[in-house]
Amino acid sequence: MTDNQLDPENAKLHTLAKAQRARNGAAEGAAVRDETGRTYVATTVELPALRLSALQTAIAMAVVSGAKALEAAVLVTEDKQFRQEDLDVIADLKDSGTPPRLFLADPKL
């Protein structure tokens, strides 16, 4: 996936996730947009006592800021698919409306 393949709002998420991943030298970068249009960006957390994927971290940041649902999420990773534990966290924030748009991006693009 490249920015040219996305609408401007989702291209912004992609750019933010790539930049955060590069800035932190992390395995993954993620950006999510909540139901109000607010954006949250994060990378993987790998501490001895706490391990979160970038997507889990971004969603946790959204939740503590009051988000009730997600509109979209971008995960920049070398993985070829979303991990089930990330999809489970996304499902926790599903409202009765439209499911969030999910984008998986190769860090080399």
Can you describe what's shown?
The strands form 2 sheets. Strands 2-1-5-6 form a 4-stranded mixed sheet. Strands 3-4 form a two-stranded antiparallel sheet. The radius of gyration is 13 Å and the shape is globular. Helix content is 34%, strand content 27%. The protein starts with 7 loop residues before the first helix and ends with a strand. The protein has one domain: Cytidine Deaminase, domain 2, CATH 3.40.140.10. The mean pLDDT is 91. The protein is built from 3 helices and 6 strands, in the order αββββαβαβ. By secondary structure, it is of the alpha+beta class.
Main sheet properties: 4 strands, mixed
The low-confidence parts are none
Count helical runs: 3
Sheet-strand content, in percent, reads 25-35%
- What do we call the CATH homologous superfamily? Cytidine Deaminase, domain 2
Please tag this protein with its features:
single chain, 109 residues, Cytidine Deaminase, domain 2, 4-stranded mixed β-sheet, two-stranded antiparallel ribbon, 6 strands
Topology of helices and strands:
Layout: H1 8-24, E1 29-34, E2 39-43, E3 45-47, E4 50-52, H2 54-64, E5 70-76, H3 84-92, E6 101-105
Parallel strand pairs: 5-6
Antiparallel strand pairs: 1-2, 1-5, 3-4
